[in-house]
Amino acid sequence: MVQIIRTIPSPLKNRKIRAILDDHNYIDFGYCGGRCYLDHHDKEKRRQYWHDIYKNDTNRELLHWLIPSTITLTMFLLWNKETLSDSIDDLNRLWREHTIKY
User: Fold this and answer.
1) Per-residue pLDDT averaged across 20-41, rounded?
2) What is the rounded distance in angstroms from the CA atom of residue 69 to the CA atom of residue 19?
């Protein structure tokens, strides 16, 4: 089970946020110049963005299995809830509930 322990601005010039995970890895995500649901709170744009991203088979698999990835963090943190902290809480909850037992 992975969890996001904090976020910081990404040091990469083309990424918006760096998520620090509890396994000491990190993922940089979000296009630095782009606007997202956290910025505009437009539910129709959010619906359309999810629809467009979900068309891609690889994205759909990553999202379905909640695999920690750039696309998963972008969708669940930037295009999910109205605040970043609410989105982090929601994704961490989903990861806890859907942990695959090996």
Assistant:
1) 94
2) 10
